[in-house]
Amino acid sequence: MDQSIEFDLDLIKRYDKSGPRYTSYPTALELHEAFGEAEYRQHIDKSNTAGGPLSLYFHLPFCDTVCFYCACNKIVTKNRAHTAPYLDNLCKEITLQGALFDKNRKVNQLHWGGGTPTFLSYEQMKRLMDTTREYFNLHDDDSGEYSIEVDPRETDDKTIAQLRELGFNRISLGLQDFDPDVQKAVNRLQSREQTFAVLESARKEGFRSTNIDLIYGLPLQTSETFARTLEQILVYAPDRFSIFNYAHMPSRFKTQRQINEADLPSPAVKLEILQMVGQKLTDAGYVYIGMDHFAKPDDELAVAQREGKLYRNFQGYSTHSDCDLVGLGVTSIGRVGDAYMQNHKELEQYDLALSAGRLPVFKGVELDDDDHLRGAVITQLICHFDLTFSNIEKQFNIVFADYFGAELNNLQIMQNDGLISMDDAGIKVQPAGRLLIRNICMVFDKYLAQKQQQFSRVI
């Protein structure tokens, strides 16, 4: 498979508009409060009937300090005692949810995100993992894909050893940028020594995959300063990079109001940074997986993409397309049966539901046949940059050209611009179109027209 990218500045400028990241289809904006606990239980029954493995996501929202760019659901506090009631509730939820899923269903994928999961003490982390093992069927042989997000400022050699002991075998390190001026501007002071000590410790303890998170488009960034950050990291050669476009949306995320907008790089500078990133990482031997993700050629994601087995969910790219995703914790989103569902976003409502013995689901959306069809098309394009019409026709019993006549007509412009090649057999995304894969997927999104401005820009 050709996993190359081509940076066409003119195309990127013309196509740079707002759009979803397609960690789901329909997107989370379609979830509604008419879907609640009763509907969720019905879809768990449907999921159990279908069988298959599970994926678990746990949201641990606590942070010691606030990063001004952050758009996550978080609780900023220095008082570690605040974690105790949340952990009690999370264990209650594990008990309630675990009782509803068949015990023979293996958990092939598990992820702790945040916030800062290592804000918890070792004793609390052990309690959480022990409770999960009691109520869900986790692997005991290290064959599961069990990952955790860590803040190197909250992590040391002892913590890494403890995480490995708990069963984690993949780790993602938050960094964003090493430049001291950028770090001050976003209130995240983090040294090279802290970061690389954690990376090296993870390798020493036998973590099978290491990822570094970076953000481009932060205040005071230039192509030159960000290049220096990349060069320092490449010396340590992590298995994966996640390099996200900063979406400045202060009307939605209050902490972003503390960023001085005058310091944000111009669109032209952001494009320079993006071009530099693509060049440096491909020169270093990484392949472009898609949607801001790069990996070594022998990484699971790169292999899965070449073998046509890559998938995308709320955690990003995944090798586990066969897993139903169970979300646990405040604001978590899952996909179970034929529906997406989300837990309460506020701690008080989350607590009230669990105190009453209820699942804390407060909204969701049931997928209809058209959602399944369009979701399959979007997933295939965003994961593999290639779509064979006959495969979709067999799976959904349609004639692709008839069902998607308007969409194929709209894609002609993208074909003329060199983003895709298209014939009667299917669509192939060209190297110049891969950085703009969100735009191509948006053509198949029936919900987009009235909600496009609620999403971040694609570049």
From TrEMBL:
Involved pathway(s): Porphyrin-containing compound metabolism; protoporphyrin-IX biosynthesis; protoporphyrinogen-IX from coproporphyrinogen-III (AdoMet route): step 1/1
Gene3D superfamilies, per the entry: 1.10.10.920, Aldolase class I
Textual note on the cofactor: Binds 1 [4Fe-4S] cluster. The cluster is coordinated with 3 cysteines and an exchangeable S-adenosyl-L-methionine.
GO biological process: protoporphyrinogen IX biosynthetic process
InterPro entries: Aldolase_TIM, Coprogen_oxidase_HemN, Coproporphyrinogen-III_oxidase, Elp3/MiaA/NifB-like_rSAM, HemN_C, rSAM, rSAM_sf
Domain Radical SAM core: 48-284
Major enzyme class: oxidoreductase
Binding site for [4Fe-4S] cluster: C63, C67, C70
Organism whose genome encodes this protein: Methylomonas methanica (strain DSM 25384 / MC09)
Recorded GO CC terms: cytoplasm
Pfam family, one: Radical_SAM
Protein name: Coproporphyrinogen-III oxidase
Reported function: Involved in the heme biosynthesis. Catalyzes the anaerobic oxidative decarboxylation of propionate groups of rings A and B of coproporphyrinogen III to yield the vinyl groups in protoporphyrinogen IX.
Catalytic activity as recorded in UniProt: coproporphyrinogen III + 2 S-adenosyl-L-methionine = protoporphyrinogen IX + 2 5'-deoxyadenosine + 2 L-methionine + 2 CO2
GO molecular function: 4 iron, 4 sulfur cluster binding; coproporphyrinogen dehydrogenase activity; coproporphyrinogen oxidase activity; metal ion binding
Binding site for S-adenosyl-L-methionine 2: Y69, C70, A71, G115, T116, Q176, R188, D213, A247
Keywords: 4Fe-4S, Cytoplasm, Iron, Iron-sulfur, Metal-binding, Oxidoreductase, Porphyrin biosynthesis, S-adenosyl-L-methionine
Subcellular location: Cytoplasm
Subunit and interaction comment: Monomer.
EC number: 1.3.98.3
